[in-house]
Each structure stands twice: as structure tokens, then as C-alpha cells.
Design brief:
Number of strands: 18
Distance between the termini: 64 Å
Strand content: 25-35%
Largest sheet: 10 strands, antiparallel
Helix content: 25-40%
Number of helices: 8
Radius of gyration: 25 Å
Structural class: alpha+beta
Shape: elongated
Strand order of the largest sheet: 2-1-7-8-9-10-6-5-4-3
């Protein structure tokens, strides 16, 4: 959502006019320099037509019912899968050295002011671009100016990718803290959003002019920009602005990979986003929506058995969405590798299928910890050891790897409190002086990886 300063800036532009750079030598030069820009709004409405697979009989041949009216085609055979059972997730590469932990992301006045200032700057630059195109004297000149701006955004996206890769590698090498990495990823998401809005403006300008069109590359660029705008970053941005309360966010990196995860208390959902550059061929060939759907179905067989996917994309990147009754899965599939390289996922905690409970009874408490994999949700439930009624208002702490205990909250009316699983053994303590109950040595569970991203099986040495 645009802030008030942005609206004021735009009104000033309209009232006073904006100068534009004239074309030189028949080539329309862009009026916008290469300075990085930041916009506070994260998350754009997707453009283009979408297509839906009617998965009425998973395991047999299927046809695609395209909402845009194109011909039916036959998809590949898929292994028959019963709905439910697990929610697979993309993770750091099997066997990779992982860096990370968790950080509390909350309101930050300095970051908010920085975003607001850059938000105004970004809106002004987009308006300059719009005026530059509108002031073209001929339709051909307008076409050239639109294409020039698209080329600029394409170069900007490449720099944005390099900036994100550098930040992830710096965190993996111990050069950035969890909080510093998350702040940088938020800035990158905001920049990507402004580039997305600028592409929307160029598309609108082309549609307004007879004989002027935008190439399919615009759709591919917009899909690529969505990669930087995941749901955890969106929630973190709202927290920085003070629009929501602070949240614990799991941050995990290895070379070429980043995992962000959190619990959205308002929606009672587990939220996760992952980028794996090692599975993305940025120079790869084209991939079709049909193939992208099949790649996602093969990688997440249980989830895609719940609801038919929607696919949209162009060129070498396609986005596949599975909006099912227990949440939403969104993947980005790369041409060249034919692999999912980005995951953005929401899962209702009430339906989370990958919990494994551990329990203790002591000092009047019956404590159950529903544990999960590193970065996954953990639910601590406290009941009275006598009548099994939920106990509200007791403090629950978490200690990781023998470190100091830190409070994760107090139990609600259902006797529960939630947190995120660390990557190593941890201790949960329930305290209501003088009563204390402890579960020590809780191990995270195995990550339910994608079917094509499994940990290699250990083999015995020859001759052993």
C-alpha cells in the first residue's frame, strides 16, 4: 500500500510537471539512472492468463482444461498418491554446511524511515518513466522507449539477483547476522516490487497505443521478480512498519540457498519461503506450463493430490500454484534444470501433518511437545496432570544446544504456545513457580524433502 508521502510526491509531480530526457540519435534513452530503489509495498497481482489442471484421477492419463480456451493436451503419467500424509518442503541442499538460527523481527523506526524515503523516490522514478514514454512523438518512438525501459529493468533484475546472492553467501560465511540478512532481503523484495509496478505501467502504456505491444519477455520478467517477494518477507515488512506484532523468523543459509520460515499467529499458519540457486538455470531454455505442472506434481505428490494446480509463466520460468484446503503452495520451476527452485508455502497449523510428539508428566503438568524439522513449527501443550484440563498462563522457555533459556511465550486458553524448531537438540521448560516440568534433548525430525532432493543413502566402504 502506498504511504502518504508517496501520494504527496505524485501530486507534486502532476502539479509541477516532470522533465524528461529526449531521445538522442534516434535511440530513446531512459530518464531513470541505475540507482537502486526501494518501495514499501510487497506483493503484486499476477498478470496474464492462468491454466488449471483438472486432476480428477491422479495416476492415470490426464488432460488440461485451459481457461484460456487452448487445445487439450495429455500430461505425463503420475504416480498414484493418496491425498495428505505430509507437506514436503524445499530445503538447503542435502549434506550442505548450514548457517543460521532465528531472529525476532519487529518494528524498526530507522528501517521504516529508510523505506518511506526510498518509496517516494521509486514512485517519482516510475512517474518519470511514464511521462518519458507518453511524450514520444510517434508510435514507433513510443515502442522504442517501452522496450528500452524493459531492457533496463532486465539489467536491474540481474543486479538484484547478484545482490541477493551476495547477501546469502555473506550470511553463510558468517559475515552477516540473521537480522542483517533479513533486513537486506526485505529491501530487495521492496525493490523487486517497484520494478514489477514499473512493468505494469509499461504494459498499460503499450495497450493504450494502437500497434504497440510488449514482448512475452515482460511476463517472464514479472514472474522472476515475484521470486524476491515471498510471504515471510511480506510479513517481516509489516512487522518492521509496526503494522503487525514482532515474529520469530527462522533464517538458514548455505551456499546458493536461503530458507525463511515463521508462524503467522493471526492466520494460524506455518509460512515458509526457500530459494535454491543451484536448481535455477538462469540461461536455461524454455519450459512449458504443462511441464512445470508435472515437475511440481512429481516433487510434491501429496500436496498436488489435494487440489489442481494453476500454472502461469513465459520462457524459462513458470509459476505453479496449488491453492488447497489446508493452505497454499507456490513453486517456481526452471527451464534447463526442470526443477523447482523456489518454494513459497502456507500450511494451516491445525492440519500440519509432520508433527512427532514427545511427552513428559511431572510436578503436576502433562507436557506434550509436537516437534518437527529444523525451521518447522513446534507446538507445546500443557495440561493438568490430574484432570487433563488445559493450563493457561504458564511460561514456556526454550534452550538450544545447552544455551540459556529464553521465554517463547505463555500458554493460551487451550494450554498451548508455539515456536520454531532449531536445527539442533533443544530443551523445553514449563514454569509456574514452584512447579517446573522439563523435556530435555528434543531432536528435530527429518525434513520431508522433495522427491528429487533426497539425502543420498550412506553406503558401506568396500571391503568392510
Amino acid at each position: 500500500m502506498r504511504t502518504l508521502p508517496v501520494l504527496v510526491a505524485l501530486l507534486m509531480l502532476i502539479a509541477g510537471g516532470v522533465g524528461v530526457v529526449a531521445s538522442v540519435g534516434g535511440v530513446a534513452e531512459s530518464p531513470v539512472e541505475d540507482d537502486p530503489i526501494v518501495d514499501a509495498a510487497v506483493g503484486q497481482t499476477n498478470v496474464g492468463s492462468e491454466e488449471t489442471v483438472d486432476r480428477t484421477n491422479v495416476g492415470s492419463e490426464e488432460t488440461v482444461d485451459r481457461t484460456n480456451g487452448s487445445d487439450e493436451v495429455t500430461l505425463e503419467r503420475l504416480e498414484e498418491v493418496e491425498p495428505g500424509g505430509t507437506f514436503r518442503v524445499l530445503a538447503t541442499p542435502p549434506g550442505a554446511t548450514v548457517t543460521g538460527g532465528s531472529t525476532l523481527h519487529d518494528a524498526n523506526l530507522g528501517t521504516t524511515m529508510e523505506l518511506d524515503v526510498n518509496d517516494v523516490d521509486a514512485a517519482m522514478k516510475t512517474e518519470v518513466v511514464r511521462r518519458h514514454v507518453e511524450n514520444a512523438e510517434t508510435d514507433d518512438d513510443r515502442q522504442r522507449r517501452i522496450l528500452a525501459e524493459m531492457n533496463r529493468i532486465e539489467r536491474d533484475e540481474e543486479r538484484l539477483h547478484e545482490r541477493q546472492s551476495d547477501a546469502v553467501d555473506a550470511h553463510a560465511n558468517g559475515e552477516l547476522s540473521d537480522r542483517e540478512l533479513l533486513d537486506e532481503l526485505i529491501r530487495i523484495a521492496a525493490i523487486a516490487d517497484e520494478y514489477d509496478e514499473r512493468l505494469d505501467a509499461l504494459d498499460d502504456l503499450a495497450a493504450e497505443t494502437e500497434g504497440v505491444t510488449t514482448p512475452d519477455r515482460l511476463d517472464e520478467l514479472q514472474i522472476q521478480l515475484e521470486i524476491y517477494e515471498g510471504p515471510v518477507r511480506e510479513e517481516a515488512l509489516d512487522a518492521v512498519r509496526g503494522e503487525t506484532g514482532g515474529s520469530e523468523i527462522h533464517v538458514e543459509t548455505s551456499q546458493d540457498a536461503v530458507v525463511l520460515a515463521m508462524i503467522d499467529e493471526g492466520a494460524d499458519q506455518y509460512v515458509r519461503e526457500v530459494i535454491r540457486d543451484d536448481r535455477w538455470d538462469r540461461g536455461g531454455g524454455e519450459i512449458t506450463s504443462d511441464r512445470a505442472i508435472n515437475v511440481t506434481a512429481e516433487s510434491y505428490p501429496e500436496t498436488t493430490a489435494l487440489r489442481e494446480p494453476d500454472a502461469f509463466g513465459a520462457g524459462a520460468v513458470h509459476r505453479v500454484t496449488v491453492d488447497h484446503e489446508f493452505g497454499e503452495l507456490r513453486t517456481f520451476v526452471s527451464g534447463g534444470t526442470d526443477q523447482v527452485f523456489v518454494e513459497q508455502q502456507r500450511i494451516d497449523l491445525a492440519e500440519f501433518a509432520d508433527f512427532e510428539p514427545v511427552n513428559t508428566v511431572g510436578d503436576g503438568f502433562n507436557v506434550t511437545v509436537d516437534r518437527s524439522y529444523a525451521g518447522g513449527p513446534v507446538v507445546v501443550s500443557v495440561a493438568d496432570a490430574g484432570d487433563e484440563e488445559p493450563v493457561e498462563g504458564v511460561t514456556v522457555t526454550k534452550s538450544i544446544g545447552g544455551g540459556d533459556s529464553e521465554a517463547i511465550g505463555t500458554t493460551d486458553a487451550d494450554g498451548t504456545v508455539r515456536t520454531l524448531s532449531p536445527a539442533e537438540a533443544y530443551r523445553i521448560t514449563v514454569v509456574d513457580e514452584p512447579q517446573v516440568a522439563v523435556i530435555n534433548g528434543i531432536e528435530p525430525t527429518e525434513i520431508p524433502r522433495l522427491t528429487d532432493d533426497q539425502q543420498p543413502e550412506e553406503t558401506e566402504d568396500e571391503g568392510s
